[in-house]
Amino acid sequence: MPSLDTLIVFTVAAVLLNLSPGPSNLYIMARSVSQGPRAGVVAAAGLFTGSFAHVAAATLGVSAIVMASAEAFTVLKWAGAAYLIWLGIQHFREAGGLIVPVGRVPAKSMGKIYRESILVEVLNPKTALFFLALLPQFVDPAAGSVTAQSLILGLIVVFTAIPSDVLIAFAAGGVARRLSANPWFARWMDKVSGAVLIGLGALVAAGEAPESAK
Question: How far apart are CA 180 and CA 188, in angstroms?
Answer without folding.
Answer: 14
